[in-house]
Design goal:
There is one protein chain. The chain is α/β, with parallel strands linked by helices. Helices cover 27% and strands 24% of the residues. The protein has one domain (37-313): Ribonuclease Z/Hydroxyacylglutathione hydrolase-like (Metallo-beta-lactamase, Chain A, 4-Layer Sandwich), CATH 3.60.15. It has 8 helices and 14 strands. The strands form 2 sheets. The protein has an 8-stranded mixed β-sheet. Helix 3 crosses helix 4 (160-169) and helix 5 (234-241) runs parallel beside helix 7 (265-272). It starts with a helix and ends in a 5-residue tail after the last strand.
Length: 318
């Protein structure tokens, strides 16, 4: 009996150690660490006429569940890491999806990479692009700039460091800058915007670097994408300071360890309190741990096992 107890303790210890190791190996790159003093949203002044759009097709989706006559279906397509294509009610949003960083384990083909830059399906007809921070597994200047050239209706909302890097590294920036806005927030600050008919609340949700979280109103639903938010004990209070539990979030995209590590459960159970969760920030070997850990605690979590896999959601009548 005593040997059996010892064996169980050893298995539990190894599982926790494996989770910690997986979290430490998440792909990142250096980013600016300056802390802003006041909230600011800046539209870069235009200097040139944008190029014509080449986006014509629509997002391919799985068969939707039955909905009421005025009840749009939400479609979510996973790209890689924290990247998603979100579509509902005639609006389409890309979040942290315009990058190609093979080091992080993303498996996108050359054809998919070409479609990404050219704003072709499933990356076509996007109204709004959101980028949480400037790490290379969330943002690539050349891809973002080329995408904006090829989709002339899309607007970009991103952290100031992202816009600065885009301006410095993308030579065609003057052709797209009228549709680019930078956001700079200090700790505990937020800002509300309406862009392309989509209501947003953008919050500061830092980890080891400044990071933006996005509350998105689309198709009558409230979604929350945390970006690379931290998991310190102070994050629970920070999320609560934005009154996230009172916003009746229908779907939250969160780092997978928020769900897969019970030490981080207060972040979702006290800080966010969404109706549904999508774990993210995984690719390659990280996915093995995520697929084992998350269902242990949250069997109803929505898991994307392949890139460009699409999930559809028909919300209940309210």
């Amino acid at each position: 009996m005593e040997n059996e107890k010892t064996t169980r303790r050893l298995i539990a210890l190894l599982f926790v150690m494996a989770l910690a190791a997986a979290r430490l190996t998440a792909c990142t790159s250096p980013a600016p660490t300056a802390t802003p003093l006041s909230p600011a949203v800046t539209r870069v002044p235009p200097t040139a006429t944008p190029m014509p759009s080449t986006a014509t097709a629509t997002l391919p989706t799985a068969t939707p569940e039955p909905t009421g006559p005025d009840q749009p279906t939400l479609s979510v397509t996973y790209t890689c890491n924290d990247g998603f294509i979100i579509s509902s009610g005639g609006k389409k949003v890309l979040v942290d999806a315009l990058f190609q960083e093979a080091r992080c384990g993303c498996q996108s083909s050359a054809e998919e990479g070409a479609a990404l830059k050219a704003a072709q399906p499933p990356f076509d007809s996007v109204d709004l692009i959101l980028i949480s921070h400037s790490h290379e597994d969330h943002f690539a200047p050349q891809i973002v700039g080329t995408y904006l050239q090829n989709n002339t209706k899309a607007e970009l909302i991103a952290m100031e460091s992202v816009v600065s890097e885009l301006q410095q590294q993308f030579t065609g920036f003057d052709q797209v800058q009228e549709r680019v806005r930078s956001v700079q927030l200090g700790d505990g600050q937020s800002v509300q915007l309406t862009v392309q008919g989509i209501d947003l609340e953008i919050i500061s949700a830092p980890a080891d670097v400044p990071n933006l979280g996005f509350l998105i109103q689309i198709g009558g639903l409230t979604l929350f994408h945390t970006g690379d938010s931290g998991n310190s004990p102070e994050m629970v209070a920070l999320f609560q300071s934005y009154h996230l539990p009172d916003k009746h979030i229908d779907l939250a995209f969160v780092p997978w360890w928020y769900l897969g590590d019970e030490r981080d459960h207060p972040l979702v159970e006290e800080g966010i309190q969404a109706q549904n969760y999508v774990p993210m920030h995984f690719a390659g070997d990280d996915a093995v741990w995520m697929f084992e850990a998350v269902p242990t605690y949250y069997p109803q979590a929505i898991l994307f096992r392949e890139e460009l896999q699409t999930w559809t959601f028909a919300p209940p009548q309210r």
